Amino acid sequence: TKDGILAALAQMAETVQPDDTFLFYAATHGVRSQGTGRFLLVPQDLASIASWSAIDAAAIDESTLVAALARIPARDALLVLDTCYAGEVSAENLANIGHETGRYLLAAAQPDQEALDSFDNKNGVLVYALREALQGRAAHDDSGTITALSLGEYVSHRVGELARKKGGTQDAMFQAAQRQLESFPVAKVMP
Fold this sequence. Notes:
Blueprint: H1 2-15, E1 21-27, E2 29-32, E3 39-42, H2 52-58, E4 60-61, H3 62-70, E5 76-82, H4 91-95, E6 102-107, H5 125-137, E7 145-147, H6 148-165, E8 173-176, E9 185-188
């Protein structure tokens, strides 16, 4: 729910420390507001899609989401939005967060694209590509450590390939909130 998501982010703002790595993953519906054109994260409890005013009231707009994330003090963060139109969340807006090393955004689709719901009748295209990356297809060091940068580069490239295999058009976006790309570990290669 909108309240649940914002409450969880508020709690994270109180418990996450600057040296922690923060991962935010949202898989839900995303739309572009008809009134403003801004990205809206649509929670599962949206009561009515009958009007844009109802959607605007129940959804989390981009500014509210970014503001909630900005209160989380972790210097390193990877934000994964597995929704339609997720690329509408701007790198400029993320840059306003202003943390030291960086925040990365991995968006499932471009601002004008829908995200394919299923690639293998189990997972969407973004999740399928993430799974491949974590199984060792993303660049990793000798100990199997995958960084945010290598994960994002692999997944953003792979999503388009997978979508075209299904006859669709979906291109993930990978953006850094800072110009200086300082990566950080996010995972170990899984068996």
